[in-house]
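Is this the right way to post structure tokens for a design question? Let me know if I should format differently. Anyway, here goes:
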């Protein structure tokens, strides 16, 4: 069974508009467009429309956003809804990134609503999960991941879940330069797939794309992506360099 392979670049709160457009130009000129990997760029909100216009007709690069609000519209000053994102050309949205869970106190209840809103607007949520260093040191990482999955995913039907991508991002590996070893990544991805099989079914679990994120770069991507249950990566720092991002997308 061949699962959708994805490499997504999460730019976080980086780049000015001109830097962002320069980066997109670099990615468009260097990207291998023949392999069957879905490449997603996830820039800051203000640049989405300009980048959407730039990548326009190309089917090789998709656009994603870093977050969305739980509601469709209304008096939520400063917030951005899934329908707005869809209207400017996004097809993916990150939900539950550890930085949002940690710094913005996002709860499972909110994440469920965000995923629902994304799905209602034909956006594919990339649902992020991951344990902290302390949780791994206390050997509670499997329990933590199991809860992060079940508490949110129990709210979705099989059909809804088929549009959700999972990203396993151990918090201790994000932005630290310390990557999970391929053994650690494979072990957790296989566990996540087993949990999905229990929540949904074996065949749905086999079709689910599970990305690895956390200091994944042009040097280590190939080894990580060669693991049976790793279907690509969610890339932070290394996605800010066109060369590196394109190399990572060619690392299967
Ligand atoms: P990193 O970030 O690649 O810089 O570790 C990954 C992420 O947070 O999505």
């Amino acid at each position: 069974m061949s699962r959708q392979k994805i490499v997504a670049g999460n730019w976080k709160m980086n780049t000015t508009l001109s830097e962002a457009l320069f980066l997109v130009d670099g990615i468009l000129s260097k990207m291998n467009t023949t392999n069957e990997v879905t490449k997603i760029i996830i820039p800051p909100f203000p640049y989405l429309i300009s980048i959407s216009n730039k990548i326009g007709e190309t089917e090789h690069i998709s656009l994603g956003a870093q977050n969305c609000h739980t509601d469709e519209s209304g008096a939520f000053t400063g917030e951005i809804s899934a329908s707005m994102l869809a209207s400017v050309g996004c097809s993916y949205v990150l939900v539950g990134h550890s930085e949002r869970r940690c710094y913005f106190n996002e709860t499972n209840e909110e994440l469920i609503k965000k995923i629902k809103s994304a799905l209602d607007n034909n956006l594919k949520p990339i649902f992020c999960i991951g344990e902290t260093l302390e949780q791994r040191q206390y050997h509670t990482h499997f329990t933590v991941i199991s809860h992060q999955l079940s508490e949110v995913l129990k709210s979705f039907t099989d059909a809804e879940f088929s549009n959700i991508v999972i990203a396993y991002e151990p918090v201790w590996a994000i932005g630290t330069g310390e990557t999970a070893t391929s053994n650690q990544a494979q072990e957790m991805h296989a566990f996540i797939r087993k949990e999905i099989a229990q929540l949904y079914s074996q065949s749905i679990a086999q079709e689910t794309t599970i990305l690895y994120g956390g200091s994944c770069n042009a040097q280590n991507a190939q080894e990580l992506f060669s693991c049976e249950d790793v279907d690509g990566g969610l890339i932070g720092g290394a996605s800010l360099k066109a060369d590196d991002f394109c190399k990572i997308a060619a690392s299967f």
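Format looks fine. Someone answered above. Worth noting: Residues 53 and 123 are 18 Å apart (CA to CA). Residues 10, 169, 174-175, 213-216, 234-238 surround 2-phosphoglycolic acid (CB under 6 Å).
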